[in-house]
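Predict the holo structure. Ligand: guanosine-5'-triphosphate.
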Amino acid sequence: MTTFVDRVVLHVEAGKGGHGVASVHREKFKPLGGPDGGNGGNGGDVVLVVDDQSTTLLDYHRSPHRRAQNGAPGAGDERDGARGDDLVLAVPEGTVVTSRSGQVLADLVGAGTRYVAAEGGRGGLGNKALSSQRRKAPGFALLGEPGEARDIVLELKSLADVALIGFPSAGKSSLVSVLSAARPKIADYPFTTLVPNLGVVTAGDQRYTVADVPGLIPGASEGRGLGLEFLRHVERCSVLAHVVDCATLEPGRDPLTDLDVIEEELAAYVGDDALGGRPLAERTRVVVLNKADVPEAEELAEMVRPDLEERGYEVHVVSAVARTGLKELTFALARHVAAARAEADAEVVPQRVVLRPKGVDDAGFVVRREGSGDDEAFRVIGRRVTRWVHQTDFANDEAVGYLADRLARAGVEEALVEAGAVAGSTVLIGAEDDAVVFDWEPTLVGGAELLGGRGTDTRLDERTRRTSAERREEFHSRKDAQTAAREELAAERASGRWTDTDEEG
Ligand SMILES: Nc1nc2c(ncn2[C@@H]2O[C@H](COP(=O)(O)OP(=O)(O)OP(=O)(O)O)[C@@H](O)[C@H]2O)c(=O)[nH]1
Ligand SMILES: [Mg+2]
C-alpha cells in the first residue's frame, strides 16, 4: 500500500528543432556559388498511445521525466537535418490526461488512440531556404525552436460497466473471480486490491465488464484511506453494485450502516464534468449481500432484505465462496447494463478524445502595457511572434534585421505605437518566463500616432521637443519612408519572393 500508481504527474519535453545552417556553395571555377545551407530537422513529439497490453501507470511513477529526440542541424550542400524521433508512451485504456490546473486535455479510450502531449520544436531554415531575389546570399540561418515542455497529470479511470464497491474485505475481488475469468488477488486483510481488476462477464448472449474497486472507508471522498483514488475508478461505470459483508464481526458494522456510509461517500464525490458522467449518486445501484455460506450471515441477510427493498434497492443474497446466487446476479446486472447502454446511446455521444484547445488565434498577437515610469514596458504576446524570436540568432545582425522585418510585416510596430511605445521604450516579446527584451527602435513608424497625443510626461517632452514645422516635416518624411517600405514589401510579396513557410501557409 506504499505506492499508488493510477495517478501520476508526468514531465514531458519534446525534442528541440535543429538549427538551420548558413553556408555558401563552393565549386571549382565557380567562385560565386549561391547559399546552400540546409534546414534543421524538427524535434520529435511526445505522444501518448493507448495500448491494450498496458494496465497501470506504474512505469511513469518510477520515471516521470520523458524527453523526445532533438532534430539534427542542417548542413552545407543543401542537406537537411534529420527529424528527431517521436517518443511514444504506452498508456492503459481509460487514461485521462489533465493539466496541472485540472483541465481535461484528453480522455484516451480505444486501443491506438493518440494524443500529442508535447510538440517538437520546428527546425530552423537554412540560408538556402531563406534566400530570395532581394536577399541573394543570406549570411544567416534560423535557429531551431525549443520543444514544448510541460507537466501533465495522467489518471486511470476504469472502463467497466459495473463497479463492485464496498468496504475492504467485503468480497469484491472474490466476486470478480467467480463471475469472470479474471483472477485477482484475494486475502483476508483490508486493501488487498489497490488497482481495479477488470473481468468480462457473460450472461446468455450478453457480455459486460465488472471491476472491483479498491475498498472504501468513511471519509474516502475527502481523501481518507486511499480515498479519491478509489472513487475515481467508479466514474465511468454505469451500474454500481454494493457488495456488503454480512459476516463481519467488526463492532459498529452491519449491512445497513455499511451501505449508508458508502452512499454518503458517493454523494460527496465530485466527479469530472468533462467526462460527461452523471453524479455517482444518480446511477443505477443494486445491493449484493455476500458471504451467505456463513449461517449467521445468511440469517442477517434475510433479516435486512425487506428494509433494503423498502428503500428501493434490488437485493441479491450470494456467496462468492459457495458460488450461490451468482447466476441470478449476472443476469440482473446484464439487464441493468443493457438499460444503461440504451440510455447512453439515446444521449448525445460525448466526443471521447478532447483535443487540446489551440490558442485563440495562433497567428495573432496582443500588446500589453505593463508597469509605469522607469519600469514601463510593452509586452508582445503571441505564438507566432514568440516563435520568430526563438528562431533568431541575436549574435548575427542580419538575422536580427530579418526578425525586425518579420515583426514589422506582422503589424507589431503599428501595434506598439498604438499602445503608446516610443523610440527607446522597453519591449518584451514572449511570456513571463522566457521573454526577450528589446530597446525599441522603430523601423516603420506610425508617425501620426507617435507625434500626437503625448507630451504629458515632461522627460519625454525634453527629449522630443521640436518646432511644429520640424515635426510636420519629420512626420511627412517618415510617412513617405513608411509608404515606400510598405510598397516594397507588397511588391515582394506579390512576386512570391518571400520563402517563409509559416507566413503564407
Ligand atoms: N465465507 C466467505 N468468505 C468470503 C466470501 N467472499 C469473500 N470472502 C473472504 O473475504 C476476504 C476478503 O475477500 P476479498 O475478495 O479479498 O475482499 P475485497 O472486497 O476484494 O477486499 P479489498 O480488496 O481489501 O477491498 C477473503 O478472505 C475471502 O476469502 C464469501 O462468500 N464467504
Ligand atoms: Mg479486493
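Residues 162-346 form a domain with the Rossmann fold fold (CATH 3.40.50.300). The chain has three domains: 1-156, 162-346, 366-504.
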